[in-house]
Design goal:
- α1 crosses α4.
- This protein is mainly alpha-helical.
- The radius of gyration is 19 Å and the shape is elongated.
- The termini are far apart.
- The protein has one domain: ACP-like (Non-ribosomal Peptide Synthetase Peptidyl Carrier Protein, Chain A).
Length: 110
Amino acid sequence: MSTFDILVEVVAEELKTTPDEVRKATSLVELNVDSLAMIEVIMAAEDRLKVVISDRDLVGVTSLADIAAVIDRTLAKQSAPLPVGAQPDTPTEGAPLDNDMPADATDAAG
């Protein structure tokens, strides 16, 4: 099943409509997807596909095909190995964030 097909199922469930009605729509506007519905759809898609989608990546999406493309790119990034020496975009679970790092001893003395 493609990402788009899964997304159609998720949207149909969230909007309480049929997959056929979702497939007919060419835009999110046609589906009456407002900002709250968009958040609910994205969260449901993240849960279903086991992916975390960046809000940045969703800027400018206007259709389900756009959202499916964002999800596919995100999944590809998550499964691709990092180049040698590269750091992940997000900290690993339990890793301290930059602002959680202890102050340098010279900083504390000043």
